[in-house]
TrEMBL record:
The keyword Plastid does not apply. PANTHER family: CYSTATHIONINE GAMMA-LYASE, TRANS-SULFURATION ENZYME FAMILY MEMBER. InterPro entries: Cys/Met-Metab_PyrdxlP-dep_enz, Cys_met_metab_PP, PyrdxlP-dep_Trfase, PyrdxlP-dep_Trfase_major, PyrdxlP-dep_Trfase_small. This is Aminotransferase class V-fold PLP-dependent enzyme. GO terms for molecular function: cystathionine gamma-lyase activity; cystathionine gamma-synthase activity; pyridoxal phosphate binding; transaminase activity. It comes from Acanthopleuribacter pedis. It comes from the Bacteria. Belongs to the trans-sulfuration enzymes family. The keyword Transferase applies.
């Protein structure tokens, strides 16, 4: 089946009780058993829930993996993945990874004896140089936020394989519509479904997908033992969101291209960062790996004062953290999403005080551009 068909149907079934075409919200904590040890595959809702399972099977199919697991947030999914490892294990992580991922690894998991080297994974030599005998997995995020730096997944997968190291790719930004890391050699894919997969900014969630069936029991054991499951209502909302993923992404992207182009023509705008622009250094990799350029656009104005002026003038774009919803959002990474990153590290990553990040929604292109023009020009 094609991708759009899978978005609508994969992992889902007609309710045998009523014929309902939508998987019901199984808002239950437990299930009646027929006798000792006799049940229908459902015992307790932390362990199994049909609505959650439909979502898990759906995302696993979209990512071309063997099995999927849904968690209470994107961070809970990453934490579950890391629970598969033990003290002494070492990990190579994309330097400019999502701030919450950095915080989990650096402030929490280090305490349990896991060790991390943060490197620019777009630089293959840097990745190779970071490998130690105890390296167990590479954790790669591509494209990154808000600089949109790409890592060549096929290339790092080859290095990982040569060295008997696992590879996980955070596919939150690109979505499986545009990038399927497992097909490029990754062992795991993780998502914050809070962003494009759910796509409507109305629930927080995460999914972990494994390439091989052999991980099913191990990940399910962690999910059930640690218990950070996604609830049935949120699973259902996310399933509903995914049905329109392909059509939403097409509109997000055409708006993203238009907004990026308009920004390059605006006075008062410095640098525009968008993989679809001709001057973008990794444009070719973006095309070959994602086939498109997404709808995240960053640009700079002179300084923080100017940024503040611009940010407060937006009428249609809302000043907010997060991304990937149908509505357009704008944020100031230096004081919002990346406030926890020390100033020097921010400068190294290119996150200046005049940097503004847009998550371009699916509204009318002309309205978005008009709002940008009035916000930038005053
Ligand atoms: C938001 C995000 C996360 C964390 O997900 P939550 O649902 O907020 O816990 C992880 N990775 C990336 C790339 C994200 O954008």
């Amino acid at each position: 089946m094609g991708f759009s068909t899978d978005c609508v149907h994969a992992g889902q079934w007609i309710d045998p009780h009523s014929g309902a075409v939508m998987v019901p919200i199984y808002q239950t904590s437990t299930y009646q058993q027929q006798g000792i040890g006799k049940h229908k595959g459902y015992e307790y809702a932390r362990t199994q829930n049909p609505t959650r399972q439909a979502l898990e099977d759906n995302v696993a199919a979209l990512e071309k993996g063997a099995c999927g697991f849904a968690f209470a947030s994107g961070m809970a999914a990453i934490n579950a993945l890391m629970s598969l490892f033990e003290a002494g294990d070492h990990f190579i992580v994309t330097g400019n990874t999502y701030g919450g991922t950095f915080r989990l690894f650096d402030r929490i998991l280090r305490k349990f004896g896991l060790t991390f080297t943060f490197v620019d994974t777009s630089n293959l030599d840097a990745v190779k140089a970071a490998i130690k005998p105890e390296t167990k997995m590479m954790f790669v995020e591509t494209p990154t936020n808000p600089m949109l730096t790409l890592t060549d997944i096929k290339a790092v997968a080859a290095v990982a394989k040569e060295n008997n190291i696992l590879l996980c790719v955070d596919n939150t930004f690109a979505t499986p519509y545009r990038q399927r890391p497992i097909e490029l050699g990754a062992d795991f894919v993780n998502h914050s479904t809070t962003k494009y997969l759910n796509g409507h900014s109305d629930c927080v969630g995460g999914v972990l997908v494994a390439k091989d069936e052999s991980w099913r029991e191990k990940i399910h054991f962690v999910q059930n033992s640690a218990g950070a499951i996604l609830g049935p209502m949120d699973s259902w909302l996310t399933l509903r969101g995914i049905k329109t993923l392909a059509v939403r992404m097409d509109r997000h992207e055409s708006n993203g291209r238009a907004v990026a182009k308009a920004l390059t023509e605006m006075k008062g705008v410095g640098k525009v960062i968008y993989p679809g622009l001709d001057n973008y250094p990794q444009r070719e990799l973006a095309l070959s790996q994602m086939g498109s350029f997404g709808a995240m656009v960053s640009f700079t104005v002179e300084n923080q004062e100017r940024a503040e002026e611009v940010l407060t003038r937006f009428k249609l774009f809302s000043l907010a953290e997060s991304l990937g919803g149908v509505e357009s959002l704008v944020c100031h990474p230096a004081t919002m999403t990346h406030a926890a990153v020390p100033a020097e590290a921010r400068a190294e990553l290119g996150i200046s005080d005049g940097l503004i990040r847009l998550s371009v929604g699916i509204e009318d292109e002309a309205d978005l551009i008009a709002d940008l023009v009035q916000a930038v020009n005053g």
